[in-house]
Amino acid sequence: MSRFPSTRLRRLRRTAASRALVRETRLSPEQFIAPLFVRKGQGLREPISSLPGVSRLSPDEAVAEAQELRGLGVPAVLLFGLPERKDDTGSEAWDDGAAVQEAARRLKQTIPDLLVATDVCLDEYTAHGHCGVIRDGEVDNDATLPLLARVAVSHARAGADVVAPSDMMDGRVAAIRAALDAAASAHVAILSYSAKSASAFYGPFREAADSSPKFGDRRGYQMDPANRREAMREIALDLDEGADAVMVKPALAYLDVIREARQRFDAPIAAYNVSGEYAMVKAAAGQGWIDERRIALEILTGIVRAGADFVLTYHAKDAAKWLREGA
């Protein structure tokens, strides 16, 4: 084996051109999905205090935001809805006139080549803030499945290209796949939040979506953050039930989960660079402690390097601009 001084790995680090030629992981706006929070109304942009730069949008403003994203090369958005009313079953989630459905219709009409994905869950829509039907103080898994299927079918009817169940109910992928196929929506893909942990990194999202549980927590159905082997079982089950792509959420503290999933499965793998990860970067950058641009792009590169094919990130627009300018 050749050794120093003959071997000098710094030779190919000397210039920007040589570094670019041998770069192993390449980041592109085409790898980003931008999450958007939508609510009914017109001309609404409501800033979210814990997510600087992110706002709750009315459907028309969601279209304007998506047009800007598309112009920067970002190919996809993921819609989260804020209801006008909440009840015990989250029935507005499958209302064809709800904010997500209206936004999906407008987006597909205005930007046909935009991929529109929708979050399928009930927590934003239920009065109790949990992701399913409550029976005897607990989320009833099997009673929740047909409701999630109704949500997915409603989103598909509105024009969603992809539905993304995030509830972590057992069997929901199979229930949604069967319902979509029966509703002549076999073309709609399922991106399953397969390995979603009961994480402390979701705090800012819960403010944004007004989705904090009114009692207890979600550890009875979301995964224990300590379990990597279980995450692989969850992914395998979802793929067996018909998921077209799977997601690891959160991303930054779960790079080992992303890496193992990439090694074990051939399916497309997404990672969610979640609200708490984004908010920490924003807070530190706001204090002048870090370079936001460099840190955000390094985090996104690390997520892709670990094995993610694409990343859901609140930094999507800024990162796309930075990459266009030359990182």
CATH fold node name: TIM Barrel
pLDDT averaged residue by residue:
95
Distance between the termini: 35 Å
Order of helices and strands: HEEEHEHEEEHEHEHHEHEHHEH
CATH superfamily: Aldolase class I
Q: CATH first level: which class? A: Alpha Beta
Write up this protein.
This protein is of the alpha/beta class and 327 residues long. It has a single domain, classed as TIM Barrel, CATH 3.20.20. It contains eleven helices and twelve strands. The chain has helices spanning 16-21, 59-71, 99-110, 141-158, 172-182, 203-209, 229-241, 255-264, 275-286, 292-306, 316-325; strands at 32-39, 45-47, 55-57, 76-82, 115-120, 133-135, 138-140, 162-165, 189-196, 245-249, 269-273, 310-313. The strands form two sheets. Strands 1-4-5-8-9-10-11-12 form an eight-stranded parallel β-barrel, surrounded by nine helices. The model has no long low-confidence stretch (mean pLDDT 95).
Label this structure with key terms.
TIM Barrel; alpha/beta; 8-stranded parallel beta barrel; 327 residues; single chain
Would you spell out the secondary-structure blueprint of this structure?
Elements (H helix, E strand, L loop, with lengths): L15 H6 L10 E8 L5 E3 L7 E3 L1 H13 L4 E7 L16 H12 L4 E6 L12 E3 L2 E3 H18 L3 E4 L6 H11 L6 E8 L6 H7 L19 H13 L3 E5 L5 H10 L4 E5 L1 H12 L5 H15 L3 E4 L2 H10 L2
Parallel strand pairs: 1-3, 1-4, 1-12, 4-5, 5-8, 8-9, 9-10, 10-11, 11-12
Antiparallel strand pairs: 2-3, 6-7
Helix pairs in contact: 2-3, 3-4, 4-5, 8-10
